[in-house]
Amino acid sequence: MIAARNLTKAYGAKRVVDDVSLDIPRGGITSVIGPNGAGKSTLLALLSRLLPPTSGSVHVDELDVATAPGDVLARRLSILRQDNHMTARLTVRELVEFGRFPHSKGRLSTEDAQRVDEAIRYLGLEDLSDRFIDEMSGGQRQRAFVAMVLSQDTDYLLMDEPLNSLDMRHAAETMKLIRKIADELDKSFVLVLHDINFASHYSDRIVAMREGAVITHGTPDEIMQTGVLREIFEIDIPIHELDGRRIGLFYR
Amino acid sequence: MAKSCPVLPHFALGVLVVAALAIWSVFVGVTDMSIGELWRSGWNDEQVQVLIESRLPRTIALVLAGAAMATSGSILQMLVRNRFAEPSTVGTAEAAKLGFLIVLLLFPEASIPARLAAAAAFAFLTTAFFMRMLRDVPLQSTLVVPLVGILLGGVINAAASFLAYRYDLMQSLASWSNGDFSMILRGRYELLWLSLGMTLLAYVYADRFTVAGLGENISTNLGLRYRSVLTLGLIIVSVSTAVVIVTAGMIPFLGLVVPNLVSLTMGDNVRRTLPWVALLGAGLVLACDIAGRILNAPYEIPVGTMLGVIASGLFLYLLLRKHDRLT
Amino acid sequence: MTASPDPTRRRAPLLLLAMSALVVLAAIGFMTLGAKGSWSFVLPFRGTKLAAMALVAYAVSVSTILFQTITTNRILTPSIMGLDALYVLIQTTIMFALGSSATAALPHSALFLAQVTVMIGFSAAVYAWLFSGRSQSLHLVALVGLVLGVLFNSLSSLLHRVMAPNEFVILQDRLFANFNTVDTSVLAIAALAVLAVSAYGASKLRTFDVLHLGRESAIALGVDYRKTVFQVLIIVATLVSVSTALVGPTMFFGLLVASITYRISASEKHAVLLPLATLTGMLLLIGGQLVLERLFAFDTALSIVIEFAGGIAFILMVLRSASR
């Protein structure tokens, strides 16, 4: 379980994340939704120690994120942000191998190599594994980074807008893949998503944020309701049911 | 990692070529010398003397300095996360010169290690300041980094020139600015072994530098102590630069050109590229020194001047080749 | 700039007048302060220096403003594009190829013409590249210019090393001039050249104003764009040759002058900009020299101080242009 207690991040007088206490249970997919500037990405960065909080604490199982050694935490929790601009020229395989860095410190054992192969196979990157990342398309690059955090083999995987810059086909494929990994490999995902319908379709839990605070959380069915969504986004979104899934039509 | 095996024969070939260059470098010069002659004359004392006092030290110095500067460029490119970073495009080299100058003025009695430490500290702080500045300014284009860095170097240089001019140290400043190995003698280059130490240190921590090159977020995600890696890398670069500047003078753009050429074919996995970078750096400096000694014999053209032409030409090529990938 | 034109129009002559007064004051101070010995020695000696400084200020300021007008940006200057480093390289190459005696035998004017021709060719090439669309950013252009400057300098020093030592001494005399060793014959030729291009350019001031609007607008307004730009390049190359011949390369002086000028000028018309820039340049050079030389007794440190200030100004401009 990831447990945040009274988590606050302030820049001057502006509290980007404001006194958030939240338990994210082990297993399945938890999506964080909310309007722009709600503090979703900042919350994710705080949970994964990319940013130090102004006050409050985060525990990942028994580990205190503020004090746990970086490499110990890196074997328990991984984080992938949206902006993976990279100047270094690495091949796909090299990048995925660095996912084993917390385990091997660069000297790959046979087990490490196996994990790397698995991750590459899982994302269907076998044919691309010797290509340089900077010579690939946005979707392929995104898959390579997912393969890297996958080979890191952590219990928790945090991803900030994993669908950003992907077209519809790749977005859907990525979400299916995340669902598959969560189910087959028993991993816990925390995703920041922009599209409420992706959140509704693939998540087990949805956390809704607004103005730095978590205003509600629950199952997709509980959150995907016109009244609740108005509270979050300040617009009226009619909800339709399609094959047992709730869809919000915010296009009109 | 596993993939380095097939390139091993190539690397051995590279080592052979550089070794041949090194041997050539030992036997080129004002006093003619050849192995055959040495043998016939029964290792004549005078010639052996020249060999030990001047030729061997010079060749060793060339190899060490070339490897160190190329490695420094490689590490800086990872730390700054910019293709065009190297000691003379991020202010490191000029800051080291200013550091030497200030120590020379304030503490003329300071020992050489103390001077070196001060210059390296100066270089370290300036580069750290520059990187800090880059963090605070969101940049449109990667080209701003070398552009501003070269200008920052120019400003530091103006300050150094002012001091040097006032206190009659222009000659020292000039000798630090242009790499020249003709004055290298036994007893005057040994500091460069320290730069070998730095190069080896860079290799030991190669994986950490590659991870740092992926950015602070990914580094933290992989459990790397990003700040410590930055500090270590900057120490390696600053010490190497200061040592090379004080023993032979700056070798401009070497650290930019060599890592980029290696990266074009091999990528940026530092563990894999660093041996090549160091080897190519040493080879290029050796070749330039030999050419500088042959072209205008009996006069010599300093390495800094030869490389100034070759490396700035290559730099232009790197800037203008389909540079969409670089930006 | 939406204010009514009236106060602006009144302010421009006032500003020019005030700047002129300051320049005259600085010139008088420079000629008279701290003079020892006979006036018949001091006045001609200082007078030559003053004339050289005024000429350099004029050449650098006008060439920079015009170059920035045709490139429609305020970061690039002829020096930053490596034009004065190229001057040194051409001088060196001629000396290297012909030898000092043959070079000395050539008429000064022929040499100067050859010089300017090469520089026009180079700047036309840079210019064509700048607007061919292959240069994606201003930063690339500026960086290429800086590196070109390094390349030219390295090539020059390579040739210096290869040439016979006595030739190098002669060349050094010609290249590394400063205000204390101005050659009066060069000064005369330089003044003539400046006069010629100025007379030529004076009739085109209004056309330059249109160029300021950018290529498309200028063409739409009926300007013969290619021809005019080429004319400007001739003027710029001549002026850069003059200033480099007199004092050697000056990296950031033009940039400093131009950025101050744009800041204080209320008008974007070249009829105002160019005189104002010239006066600013003169004030910086003569006033700066006066302060450093007479007040602080730092003799030739002015160029270093200008380099320092200009470098910082440039860094700030680049960072401002680069930050979103």
Highlighted features:
heterotrimer, B: mainly alpha, ABC transporter involved in vitamin B12 uptake, BtuC, disordered N terminus, C: 324 residues, mainly alpha, 14 helices
Please characterize this protein's 3D structure:
The complex is a heterotrimer of chains A (252), B (327) and C (324). Chain A has helices at 40-47, 70-74, 92-98, 101-104, 110-122, 138-151, 168-184, 196-202, 220-223, 226-233; strands at 2-11, 14-24, 28-33, 55-60, 63-64, 77-80, 156-160, 188-192, 205-210, 213-218, 239-242, 245-248. By secondary structure, chain A is an alpha/beta fold. The N and C termini of chain A lie far apart (39 Å). The relative contact order of chain A is 0.17. The relative contact order of chain B is 0.17. The longest helix of chain B has 36 residues, at 45-80. With 327 residues, chain B is mostly helical. Chain B contains 14 helices and no strands. Chain C is an all-alpha fold and 324 residues long. Chain C contains 14 helices and no strands. Chain C starts with a helix and ends with a helix. Chains in contact: A-B, B-C. The B-C interface holds B 84, 137-141, 143-144, 146-148, 150-152, 154-155, 158-159, 161-162, 165-166, 252-253, 295-296, 299-302, 305-306, 308-309, 312-313, 315-316, 319-320, 323-324, 327 and C 136-137, 139-140, 142-144, 146-148, 150-151, 153-155, 157-158, 161-162, 251, 298, 300-301, 304-305, 307-308, 311-312, 314-315, 318-319, 322-324.
